[in-house]
Design brief:
Chain lengths: 414, 415
């Protein structure tokens, strides 16, 4: 039965039976007593807000938008959408300077990247951290992601782009801000793997930040501009029959689901063509269209953390499946737990303690397993886990790039 | 994507079936759309407490021959049902869930409204008694959190007093609970349990309870502890130092939510793939067999398997859908047993037997689904979506879920 047809709202809030099961799975509830919990912040509060905006509660900002409530709801209520929409619709003031800075990932990246060594040294230095903490309320205990001296796009245009036309199959790559400004190596690994599989990689006609941090920092208008721009450049790729492959689970979820649900930007003509690398590659392997040839000597004990947004997408099974294909991998799936960072959430001073408390069970489990490294599809989970445990976090694409016999794979997919 | 078996539904029956199959060496996936009825259980498993004619059952296995032949227990057969029943405790204990009770005899529990209920086994902390007229002690102290309405202390007290226990009721006010009380609908078992999971808050509560204790020989508390770590319960018992009984609350159920989490972990630890928050949307059927299913999240990726198990639950979990004139099974459109005359679906007296609770998917003698009058060769049905039983009236829902899941897993494993 299509529940939607029977509802007034697009977020199913009428279907809430007040069972409170969402509360059992909310990571914020046990660590932040001010947060009213998903049911009260979501459908229960919405009932009141619809009558009078007076009932809007500022404490909704403590929601991390991890979407675990949506996943748990027995009645199909889009609880996190209700909360995030309320933050957009009922907000009484604009974002703080700090939030604008944390949210403007591509602006900040563009500004900071040319001065990467200086910026990295400054943001890593104690005096700067004190200033950031006191003036900007960015917690001083946070380790800042480093900026890369060369952007991924710069590298790609110079080094990789000329080589892509030789492949019969072509895809587009939405790399996201993190790959571009902070960690181009992940993008390079992606290009290496796709080329070995016989796919040429194209950049979009100037992608912009997906906008997720703007949504969570009270800048919906700016996020909407990005969404409209991105849908138009995604469309150009789809028109060329190029699937848009991604490496960030959060950018993917944002462009597929948050654009229509929260920002009311129609993405229906491109949504199905936005695919995370692991779903894309797994299906190629599963349907026999490509072959993976692995090195015989690759050995690793991997603990896989499924990021919250990956869990919501339901695609963790593909990344896990790919890693399990590698001979010599001892694979364990970590329990379903939020790491606590939730993008820019954990950087904000008011959230630091909660953020670390949320991640504690995950960090403890990683320490117990003591893997060679942790795998995760999310850049901010990587920062959080690397800061909070002694283990490195690798992206599944980088693991594939390391484990594949690239020449043999390329030969098998000619 | 290919599996040996795909199970649709991640509740009690789906998980028991999945764990059994994984342990039997098969590769399984469970597709689970949101949380399920186990989260709302009373904390006990009913096996068979009442026959269709209203006779109370004290020895459930002996009562199976008097069930009609459409009942899932009759189809499985008394011999196998007894064998599976014997294994239930060890099965759950391997998943970290302790069950108490006798597999051949029913016991009694106190409900959150103070009634004494015939049941089979209880989970972890929920107290169970061998007879209806048990006496919990000479003097009982019943303690509640102030403002918590899903634990009816007055009813519980009057029920115990009828059996000779003097009762005193106290309620404890906690600062950490006051924020929940701003909205009375937040004073629910899960919210309270999440506060009580915090060691500091729990210690505060328990020491207050201790200070309230006079000459009582038993303490009665609501089952709102140990959501994430059930060791909290033994710690509470040790710290109170006298007989402490936990009574299940109105839904949601803390032992139920905990059991759901532990069963899911056990399935994943055994190597199963749990597709959480995903929903089966379409199916590919040909020549009386299911070839694949398609889900909301995986889109055009076909989930293929040799066998499929329907464990989608009843009306609440949308395993069955009722319209004004028919009841149907929404995924495969399987044959459903229901009365054509809607007037016979329900009794206006709420507490009477409700026939709609007896409707479900028709199966053959091996619990294979029936569609258009024919068995679907590789589609089995387990749990409360099954027809032939009235789980509410007979109080057999959990028993049927567990036993049918074990039976189907064995059939798939060729045992």
């Amino acid at each position: 039965m299509n529940m939607q047809e029977k509802n007034e709202s697009s977020n199913n809030f009428e279907q809430c039976i007040k069972c409170t099961i969402c509360t059992a799975y909310c990571p914020v509830v046990p660590v932040n007593p001010i947060f009213p919990g998903p049911k009260q912040a979501g459908p229960d509060g919405e009932r009141l807000r619809l009558k009078n905006a007076y009932f809007f509660d500022e404490a909704l900002k403590y929601c991390m938008n991890c979407k675990r409530c949506d996943v748990a709801c027995p009645s199909g209520v889009k609880i996190s959408d209700i909360i995030q929409s309320a933050r957009i619709d009922y907000r009484t003031h604009g974002p703080k300077l700090r939030d604008v800075m944390l949210a403007s990932t591509d602006f900040m990246g563009t500004m900071a990247r040319p001065f990467a060594p200086i910026v990295n040294a400054v943001t890593g230095a104690k005096p700067a951290k004190v200033v950031l903490d006191k003036v900007m309320a960015i917690d001083h205990r946070r380790i800042f992601p480093k900026y890369s001296g060369q952007s991924f796009e710069g590298w790609f245009r110079r080094k990789a782009a000329p080589l892509q036309a030789q492949f019969t199959n072509q895809i587009s790559y939405f790399h996201g801000c993190y790959v571009n400004y902070n960690y181009p190596q992940l993008g390079k690994d992606f290009v290496t793997v796709m080329n070995a599989l016989g796919f040429g990689v194209n950049l979009l006609d100037h992608e912009k930040c997906c906008g997720v941090a703007m949504i969570s920092s009270g800048m919906p208008e700016q996020a909407k501009k990005h969404a409209i721009h991105n849908v138009s450049v995604l469309q150009k790729s789809v028109d060329k029959k190029h699937t848009v492959v991604t490496t960030s689970s959060t950018c993917t979820l944002t462009m597929r689901d948050e654009y229509p649900d929260l920002l009311k930007v129609d993405n229906s003509s491109v949504r199905e063509d936005i695919v995370l690398f692991s779903k894309f590659i797994y299906n190629l392997v599963d349907s026999g269209k490509v072959k993976l040839v692995f090195k015989n000597n690759f050995k690793a004990k991997i603990a896989y953390h499924v990021p919250c947004h990956m869990e919501k997408l339901g695609w963790g099974i593909f990344s896990a499946g790919l890693m399990k294909m590698i001979p010599g991998v001892e694979f364990s799936l970590l329990d379903s737990n939020c790491c606590g960072i939730a993008g820019t959430y954990g950087f904000k001073k008011e959230n630091y303690e909660a953020s670390q408390a949320i991640g504690k069970p995950l960090f403890e489990q990683i320490n117990r397993i003591s893997p060679d490294f942790v795998a995760s599809d999310c850049e901010t989970c990587k920062w959080q886990i690397e800061m909070s445990t002694k283990f490195k976090v690798k992206h599944p694409v980088s693991i594939l790039a390391e484990a594949l016999d690239l020449e043999a794979t390329a030969a098998a997919n000619k | 994507m290919k599996f040996d078996t795909i199970i649709i539904g991640g509740g009690l029956s789906g998980l028991v079936c999945g764990i059994s199959l994984q342990k039997g060496g098969r590769k399984c996936a469970i597709v689970s759309a949101g949380q399920n009825a186990l989260n709302f259980s009373s904390g006990s498993f009913g096996f068979l407490s009442r026959l269709q004619d209203g006779t109370e059952v004290t020895e459930p296995l002996k009562a199976i021959p008097s069930l009609n032949e459409e009942h899932p227990y009759s189809k499985i057969g008394v011999e196998k049902v007894s064998r599976y029943a014997k294994n239930v405790k060890s099965f759950f204990s391997e998943c970290g869930i302790s069950l108490y009770g006798d597999d051949t005899k029913n016991s009694y529990m106190i409900t959150p409204t103070g009634n004494v209920k015939n049941t089979w086994m209880a989970m972890d902390e929920i107290c169970l008694f061998p007879s209806k007229d048990f006496k919990v002690g000479d003097k009982a102290l019943i303690v509640n959190m102030q403002g918590y309405l899903d634990f009816n202390t007055q009813f519980i007290a009057s029920s115990l007093e009828n059996k000779g226990t003097a009762c005193r009721i106290e309620s404890v006010k906690l600062d950490s609970m006051e924020r929940l009380r701003k909205n009375p609908s937040e004073m629910r078992a899960v919210n309270i349990a999440r506060v009580m999971d915090n060691e500091q808050e729990r210690t505060k509560f328990i020491s207050t309870v201790k200070s309230l204790l006079a000459d009582e020989d038993v303490i009665i508390l609501p089952a709102v502890f140990g959501l994430k770590d059930k060791d909290d319960i033994s710690k509470i018992k040790a710290s109170l130092g006298i007989k402490t009984l936990f009574v299940g609350t109105m839904p949601p159920s803390i032992p139920g939510v905990r059991a759901q989490m532990l069963l899911k972990s056990a399935f994943e630890e055994a190597g199963g793939s749990f597709l959480i928050g995903d929903e089966a949307k379409n199916v590919a059927l040909s020549d009386g067999r299911v070839n694949a299913i398609y889900t909301e999240n995986l889109g055009n990726v076909a989930l293929e398997a040799d066998n499929f198990v329907l464990a989608t639950g009843s009306f609440f979990s949308k395993g069955l859908v009722a319209t004004p004139n028919r009841i149907y099974e929404p995924l495969f459109d399987l044959d459903v047993d229901f009365d054509e005359d809607r007037n016979n679906w329900y009794d206006p007296k709420f507490f009477n037997k409700q026939n709609y609770m007896g409707y479900g998917v028709i199966t053959d003698s091996s619990l294979k689904a029936v569609k258009g009058g024919k068995s679907v060769d590789n589609l089995y049905v387990v749990g409360s979506v099954l027809s032939g039983m009235n789980s509410l009236y007979e109080y057999c829902g959990s028993g049927v879920s567990i036993i049918s899941a074990m039976f189907v897993a064995d059939s798939i494993l060729g045992r």
